[in-house]
Amino acid sequence: MKFEDLLLEIDGFGKFQILILFILCLPRMNLPMHFLLHNFLAATPSHHCAIPHQEAFVNLTMEEVLLISIPREPDGTFKSCEMFSQPQFHLLLNSSLQPENNSIIQECQHGWVYDHSQFTSTISTQWDLVCEQRGLNQATATFFFIGVTMGAVVFGYLSDRFGRKAMLLLSLVCAVIFGMLSAASVSYSMLAVTRTLTGVALSGVSLIVLPLGMEWVDVEHRTFSGILTSMFWSVGNMLLAAVAYLVREWRWLLVAVTGPCLLSIVCLWWVPESARWLIANGKVKRAHRHLLRCARMNGRKDFAEDMPLIMYGQRIVLQWEHKKPGENYSYITLFRTPVLRKISLCSGTLWFGVAFSYYGMSMNLTGFGLNMYLSQFVFGFIEIPAKMIMYVLVNRVGRRQSQAWALILTGLCIGANIVIPKPFTPLRSAVAIMGKGFSEAAFTTAFLYTCELYPTVLRQNGMGYSSFMARLGGALAPLVFLLDEVWRSLPEVTYCGVAVCCGLVAFLLPETLHVRLPEGIEDIE
């Protein structure tokens, strides 16, 4: 008897599975609050050079002091990173005059003055991460995703070795510890280190939640459970907009988004270990105990009582010949056999493109003409109908076609906004929202698709490797914004090109629609 057959007999989508899925949705909902926190944590408000007080300024208004002290941009706004070496009093007579000599313009000498109307404080204002230090500000997101990248490798291996639930609990505890330490940072270096370690911890949550839920669900409801779990990512997206709107001080914002992890830790005690993993690792008694609990809760009490442990062990474990006692798998195993090697190379490329374009759009909240809080909320809201549409498409069209076209259309929407003029704000916003919907559809499908591509004995290693590639894309995405100094549209061209190329790679993967989850490498080959 295969595990899928056993699930059908004890009800593969009853009260037991629904309870597990909803509990696992709590940490899933908390993830985007950290993954997209950079938008608000490191927001850079309007700023200009600080002007030292002089006796000559006594009778001048602040506007007049700025006029004679700060050069202007072509659009008339004051420059953020430059000042006059000496006050230009002649500009009081005619403010339209331009300085005749650029040598009188210098970089800010006395720090900066920030507009605090929108943010009480951010890490940009805390440590002056502007102008020449702008790269460090963007690097904060990169440090976090480097941590997530490392965590994908660590937790992918550990969860296949020591179990899904134990590693999920460990990652949540570490996320609380390092999240609170981030809020208490006394220097930029401390913040960079603690945010990196927070990324390592949250990578485990991102990696384990979906497979743990899906391994308890039958084939028929696998897509629904994957979409349902990912819906709560979108809910978390919208909640982040609300929390950031209410909490404008960066330290308390970190506390506010880290606190919910404590609730997830408490609720996790009601979630059992994956029976698939237990059987694959020879822990038959524990698997039997959890399956009995599942059968009773789903109203299959008679079946549970008629299933002796010894008979169960013979029927299931002897069929589970894919993993012999003492046999261990590693990331190298993903590239040892031909078909598995092709799947791993293509899925890694796909995940890089999905994450690179998703975070490229998600971290550009002010680039489409909307208020950043409204952009965050709308970008989260549009993901819900996108996922509902994908629920239909992946079951009708298939995983492969849905995955490929969702990512290709994401790239085309990004490309369209390159050619649409800036004054057409409503049109640019509409195209950006469509692109965000396609981007999330691609991400949702990638999670579901990848879980179905890898066998049980390698599933977490496969997810770990895929997550590693995704977080590599996520780590590079914020740094690409710095390319606007070379050419203003170069970041968008990069996001567009990568999304389209990686979408085409998805056509090389096998279709998994209505196919049972593979248990061993033999099922793949």
TrEMBL record:
GO terms for molecular function: organic anion transmembrane transporter activity; prostaglandin transmembrane transporter activity. It comes from the Eukaryota. Keywords: Cell membrane, Ion transport, Membrane, Transmembrane, Transmembrane helix, Transport. The keyword Transport applies. It is a multi-pass membrane protein. One of its GO terms (biological process) is monoatomic ion transport. The chain crosses the membrane at residues 139-159, 166-186, 192-212, 224-246, 252-271, 343-361, 373-393, 405-424. SUPFAM superfamilies: MFS general substrate transporter (SSF103473). Belongs to the major facilitator (TC 2.A.1) superfamily. Organic cation transporter (TC 2.A.1.19) family. This is Solute carrier family 22 member 7. The lineage of its organism: Eukaryota, Metazoa, Chordata, Craniata, Vertebrata.
